[in-house]
Amino acid sequence: MPTHKSDSFLAVTQHVHNCGPQTFLISRKGGTLLTINNFVYRSNLKFYGKSNNILYWECVQNRSMKCRSRLKTIGDDLYVTNDVHNHVGDAKRIEAAKAVGMLIHKKLSSLTAADRIHGWNRSESSADPLKV
Questions:
Q1: 39 and 59 Cβ atoms separated by less than 8 Å
Q2: Which residue stretches of the chain are H helix?
Q3: Considering only Cβ atoms within 10 Å of each terminal Cβ, which end of the chain, N or C, has fewer?
Q4: Tens digit of pLDDT for each residue in 80-129?
Q5: Helix, strand, coil distribution of the chain in percent, nearest 5
Q6: Cα–Cα distance for residue pair 99/56, rounded to 1 Å
Q7: Cβ contacts of 70 within 8 Å, gap of 6 or more
Q8: CA distance 35 to 19
Q9: For residue 45, which phi and psi values (nearest 5 degrees)?
Q10: Is the pLDDT reported for residue 67 higher than 70?
Q11: What's the count of helices (H) and strands (E) in the chain, helices before strands?
């Protein structure tokens, strides 16, 4: 429940401790996109913090629809800093990626900067979606 202060809402951050393996969608350009509750998020996979384990994520509809939904991950902890979307979810996109083998499951802490360039490690999946 949001906290009121002078008739305005203060932001309430949701925290999921050690959230386990997440579902990632591999984009057409080979990037790694995070899927949460039928929404897709992008990160530049530039790591921040003393332990170099903080990632910031924005909704992929940020540029086209001005969606302001944001996430932050610290290791395997997920922080939802803004869960309000101004559009419907991306269920069709996620299902289409699943149908051609472009979804992977991995822990957030296993992401590296190489995931933004190379997309994913094919040894993690038995099917090669590029041969579809």
A1: yes
A2: 62-65, 91-99, 114-118
A3: N
A4: 989 999 999 999 999 999 999 999 998 888 888 777 554 444 333 333 33
A5: 20, 35, 45
A6: 28
A7: 56, 57, 58, 59, 80, 81, 82
A8: 13
A9: 55, 35
A10: yes
A11: 3, 10
Share of the chain above pLDDT 90, in %: 43
Where does residue 85 rank: exposed (0-12), middle (13-18), buried (19+ CB within 10 A)?
Answer: middle
Q: Is 26 exposed, middle or buried (0-12, 13-18, 19+ CB in 10 A)?
A: buried
When pLDDT is cut at 50, 70 and 90, the band that residue 31 belongs to is confident
3 is written with which tokens? 């906290």
Tokens in use for 107? 């822990």
- Rounded Cα distance, 74 and 55, in Å: 7
Q: State the chain's mean pLDDT as an integer.
A: 78
